[in-house]
UniProtKB/TrEMBL annotation:
GO-annotated biological processes: canonical Wnt signaling pathway; cell proliferation in dorsal spinal cord; endothelial cell fate specification; heart development; midbrain development; positive regulation of cell population proliferation; rostrocaudal neural tube patterning
Gene of this entry: TCF7
Biased composition range(s): Pro residues: 426-436
Composition bias, Polar residues: 47-59, 400-409
Compositionally biased region (Basic and acidic residues): 19-43, 63-88, 245-270
Protein keywords: Activator, DNA-binding, Nucleus, Repressor, Transcription, Transcription regulation, Wnt signaling pathway
One GO location term (cellular component): beta-catenin-TCF complex
DNA bind region: 273-341
Native organism: Esox lucius (Northern pike)
Compositionally biased region (Gly residues): 1-11
Protein name: HMG box domain-containing protein
Family: Belongs to the TCF/LEF family.
InterPro entries, A to Z: Catenin-bd_sf, CTNNB1-bd_N, HMG_box_dom, HMG_box_dom_sf, TCF/LEF
CDD domains cross-referenced by the UniProt entry: HMG-box_TCF7-like
Length: 453
DNA sequence: CACCCTTTGAAGCTC
DNA sequence: GAGCTTCAAAGGGTG
């Protein structure tokens, strides 16, 4: 996959992918068809960034720094408070949530794809395994994007719902002083009709009263119906109890185990505030169930490969939607935890194969070293780890993207083309998985409908 | 049972 | 500032 710089921009995430459209001379009909051009999207993302940084205040960055200063001392208290809440709630029923109680209100324009350019509504994706206990009352729905899902009043998705402002989220789960309350109208959720929050969209999930259950399509049934649901326990979804395994998603189920509660009581630790989900993660959460159903796959690695391809197959508008969602998530996360830093979670996961790969002969190291090793042009050829090492190490040559490792694991001394000569995955039709991938996605799993790729 | 795999994006770190 | 690393979700697979 080419990583050539287009000088255009940084944006829309898979910048390199978009760049490759041009560099490889491939026709991206979608781009031509869509009102969004590559530049448009770059502008969009740029605007999103700008908006998030500037729209909420004259100088959001400065504000945040100020908030951090203000709350720096609060952080410890805040976490202590979280601990206190945790203990208070069933003595260990402090649930882990992997997302915020955002709403995934149905998008009137995204039944399965296209987005109405005129629509500015954005669905919030967050659901699933670490979910709000109250969502157990909600029927699971996988049709997040259905125009008018049965569980949601039609007018709600169209008009949006004003959240009662009298309820303060901080009263339902620990918030830094003024965290949400300080959200200026310009960035507050209430003020964003583009975010069709329902009455239970943001705050009410944390209300002591049962929320309207009609607006949690993002939450999966697996947890909604999970055992041990606390009827009122309402920590923020990004807060994960300091269980022994931070990187697992079934915090909820695990944390309701008595022995873990006992352990936690013995060793109270600070809850972990997880990173807000990025656009792709939101997309994965949204589409995972669909892929699983379509492809009858269970392995997440394989599913993620498919989702990665589908992600690149999305139109600009579709991707923009998720970037917008991600921006909202970050924005809210920033508001809720102004002193939080991604650094806080560094080291939570084990250092793993990356260290193993340190001496790997298949890993050329930096792109510069890679180019040198394979005799590629340092200025124009893309080479090297595609922004992450792991096993996803692809090399570009002649517009092809492939792996430096052969199927038997032996190192490859030079870049190779894809087996089928297919273009990079972002434009690829259904094709065989990368030879480097240990996962062999059963492409024929679904049949000839081409869904599973 | 801890970790791997696999994906993209954001953010932090290093040089 | 470029390049690299870590983490976010997910759950079957692996040692």
């Amino acid at each position: 996959m080419p990583q050539l710089s287009s000088g255009g921009g940084d944006d829309l995430g898979a910048n390199d992918e978009m760049i490759s459209f041009k560099d490889e001379g491939e026709q991206d009909e979608k781009i031509q068809e869509n009102a969004f051009t590559e530049r448009d999207l770059a502008d969009l993302k740029s605007s999103l960034v700008n908006e998030s940084e500037t729209n909420q205040s004259p100088n959001a960055a400065a504000v945040r720094r100020e908030q951090q200063n203000e709350h720096r001392g609060y952080q410890e208290k805040h976490r202590e408070h979280l601990d206190g809440v945790s203990k208070h709630q069933d003595g260990g029923m402090y649930k882990a949530y992997t997302g915020y109680p955002f709403l995934m209100l149905p998008d009137p324009y995204i039944p399965n794809g296209s987005v109405s350019p005129s629509s500015n509504k954005v669905s919030v994706v967050q659901q699933s395994h670490g979910m709000h206990p109250l969502t157990s009352l909600l029927p699971y729905s996988n049709d997040h994007f259905n125009p008018s899902p049965p569980h949601l009043p039609t007018d709600m998705s169209q008009k949006g719902v004003q959240r009662p402002q009298s309820q303060d989220i901080s009263g339902f789960y620990p918030l830094p002083p003024g965290a949400v309350g300080q959200m200026p109208p310009s960035m507050g959720w209430q003020s964003q009709p583009v975010y069709p929050l329902s009455s239970c969209g943001f705050r009410q999930p944390y209300s002591s009263s049962l929320p309207n259950s009609s607006s949690y399509p993002r939450f999966s049934h697996s947890l909604m119906l999970g055992p041990g649901m606390h009827p009122t326990g309402i920590p923020h979804p990004a807060i994960v109890p300091p269980s022994g395994k931070q990187d697992h998603h079934d915090h909820y189920d695990r944390n309701i185990k008595p022995h873990q509660e006992t352990k936690r009581e013995k060793e109270p630790k600070k809850p972990v505030i997880k990173k807000p989900l990025n656009a792709f993660m939101l997309y994965m959460k949204e589409m995972r169930a669909k892929v699983i159903a379509e492809c009858t796959l269970k392995e997440s690695a394989a599913i993620n490969q498919i989702l990665g391809r589908r992600w690149h197959a999305l139109t600009r508008e579709e991707q923009a939607k998720y970037y917008e969602l991600a921006r909202k998530e970050r924005q809210l996360h920033m508001q809720l935890y102004p002193s939080w830093s991604a650094r806080d979670n560094y080291g939570k996961k084990k250092r793993r194969k990356r260290e193993k790969q340190q001496d790997s002969t298949t890993d050329p190291g930096s792109p510069k070293k890679c180019r040198a090793r394979f005799g590629l042009n340092q200025q124009t050829d893309w080479c090297g780890p595609c922004r992450r090492k792991k096993k996803c190490i692809r090399y570009l040559q002649g517009g092809r993207c492939s792996s430096p490792t052969s199927s038997d694991g032996s190192p490859i001394d030079s870049p190779v083309s894809l087996v089928d000569g297919a273009p990079p995955r972002h434009l690829s039709p259904p094709r065989s998985p990368s030879p480097a991938s240990p996962l062999h996605i059963p492409l024929n799993n679904k049949g000839a409908d081409g869904q599973c790729y």
